[in-house]
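Journal club prep — side note

Before the paper discussion, L.F. wants everyone to see what a predicted structure for a comparable chain looks like in token form. Sequence:
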Amino acid sequence: FAAGIYPFRKRNTLSEEEQRALFRATRQVLLEAIAVLRERMGEVTDVKVRDFLQVHGKAGQPCPRCGHPISEVKIGQRATNFCRHCQPGTLLRGGL
């Protein structure tokens, strides 16, 4: 979400700039998550804190960036949440 890239894009379709943006966004999201979890959890390690994530688990709610509803795609037991406005793309049949 932070990089604005459609979550089902194949790696070989990303431009060099998109790859760099994805790397930077991944690093920033992880650093922010670590800071939030350290602050909220302290020594507790058996609690799942997810409410600070921008779109994860928030299907149907407004996107924090543009206000469009967050979408959810489920494959088996896993769900991916994303904003179709901020992360445009198309699902392909027979594969993502």
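L.F.'s comment for the group: The chain is about 25% helix and 10% strand. Keep this in mind when we get to the figures.
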